[in-house]
Hints:
The protein is α/β, with parallel strands linked by helices.
Amino acid sequence: MKALDRYLQRKRIEQTIPFIKAGNEVLDIGSNYGELFDLFRKKGIKISGIGIDPNISGDSNGNEFTLIKDYFPTPKLEKKNFDAIVMLAVLEHIPFVNIPDFAKNCNEKLKSGGKLIITVPSKSVDHILNILLFFGLIKGMELEQHYGYDINMTKPLFEKEGLTLLLHKTFQIGLNNLFVFEKNS
Length: 185
C-alpha cells in the first residue's frame, strides 16, 4: 500500500468510531492486516474480534484480534456472533449475484442490536482511482474487481435480511458512502 492508500483506508476506518463501543466484539470483513483494530487500540478504545481477508499471508492470533485468511462467510467463524460487522470498501468487490447471500450471512453473524457498518465508493470513484493508479499515487487494491456497484441497492438488499438502516451519509466530498444498519431484536 502507498501513502495515499493508507490515508484513504484510515479515513474509512475513522467513520466506524461512533458506532463501535469499547468492549465490542467486531468482525472486520476485508480487514487487510488488522488496521481497524490497530487504530482503535491507538485511540484507547478496547475492542476485540476477528479480521478476515483472502489476501493476507496467513492466519494469525494477536492479543485483541485474530486474522483469518479466507473469504466471508467461512466455517472458521463457527457459531460466533458479533456486536459489529465492518466492511470498508468491500461490497463493490463482491460479485452482484453473491450479494444477497452475503447480506444474509452478515445478518446471521450479528448479535441482536448489532451494527453492520459499510463504506462503498460512489461510481465516479473508479475513474479517479484509475487516474491515481496511472500516476502511481495509489496501489489500487483489487481495482479490477470493481464492476460499478450501485449504492442504491444497498438499503433494500440488507433490509430484506431484517436489518434496519440507521444512517446513510456521504463523506470525502461525496465520493464515499457510509451505511450503518442495525439487527432487529
